[in-house]
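Case study B.
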Amino acid sequence: MSATFDPRRVMTDQDVKTISRVEELSYELKIRDVMTARVHTVTPQMQIVEVLDLFREKRISGAPVVEGAQMIGLISLEDLIRAMRRGNGHARVSEYMTTDVITVRDFEPVVTGLEVFARTGVGRLPVLDEHGRLAGILTKGDITSGTLRALHEDFQAEEVRRYRASHLFEDIVSDRTSLILRYWIKPRDFQHGGQASSDIKRALLRLGADAQLARRCGIAVYEAEMNLIIHTTNGGIIKVEIEPGQIKMSAVDDGPGIPDVELAQRPGWSTATEEVREMGFGAGMGLKNIERCVDKMTLESTVGAGTRLTMKIHLQPRQGFNGASVSHSERATA
Amino acid sequence: MTLQDLINQLKLKPLTGSQFERVSPTAGYASDLLSCVMAGAQKGAVWVTLQAHTNIVAVAALLEMSAVIITEGAQPDAATLDKARQEGITLLSTDKPTFEVVGRLWEMGLR
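Model:
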């Protein structure tokens, strides 16, 4: 297990678990996405000295040798040096080129290129298209800059989404604008427990909420969400209503209802089953946690009819939802 | 002190996550009760627990923890590991009991 990526190694399940975004990209990106498409080529009839001039002028260190539409070899600076040392500057390219050329296909993933580089130790790989014609050339530098470009695009896409969302409340004019998010929570669905709260937290961050506020909402909704999963008969609905000055959240279900609402709010009190407690729930602290995170909490319940938990957070002008009030550092760490 | 240092010194087995040398935990917390963790753990903390089910990922993600150390050799299932990778949560595993892990973390200077 390591953070560095060695394409020569066979991937084990253990490795697959630790794949980073960069490694993912090496599978997603195709060689054609990162290769240099405009290739300087030479012909087999050219003289070594002519190629040397071309290399110097174009600042390259190798070129495919092309005859007609066909690539027949590769000539590198090393081949040129070999020729020059023997005083054969006027020899033809065809005498010194490498004909046994390793190539890759433009539709193959970047990781294939990495594997070939690692296996063969060559510095550049001619890239052929599906018809076997020269489509470009690939160096390790191409892979590095192509991957960085893709990462940058990922990052920008998220920035743009965040920017657009954070201006929502400025851009849309009404006497009272609010954004309502609804989540249906299924009973005993521990597998998805925390999904709604995580989605809500992300939505708030995109809308430009500061990290502390998003965290408070996240924790409050998480506890409400788990209560629906653990205790309800048919699950329930979480609703988050976001306005420039406040956030109202509610968790509503249709049963079984809480016999003693006051007792339910006492720290340490829980009616969770042994099985649920073994998973670490039912500490009897959920409602207490919610109370701590929100400005106002109301719990109403009728046995046989259901429970309604409402939570409200008032926003300080600084935390409010208009893009301008959110500092850059907060957005970066969000 | 980075996650890589913790992994080396406590011989932890990484289950998810990468680039451990780039993450520096800023606090620690130990509990198996999720609501306690919700109430008490700080952002950037290392959380030591013997819980290994999916919801530890939700908790760790909401609190933006730097890692979860799962003790006593408890093994998260595939869905939990998937979820952790998706949320970018580092899960580390050890056979040692929570008490010992916390003791070692404290010795290493994590407060």
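Residues 1-160 of chain A form a domain with the CBS-domain fold (CATH 3.10.580.10). The remaining cases will be described in the next quarterly update.
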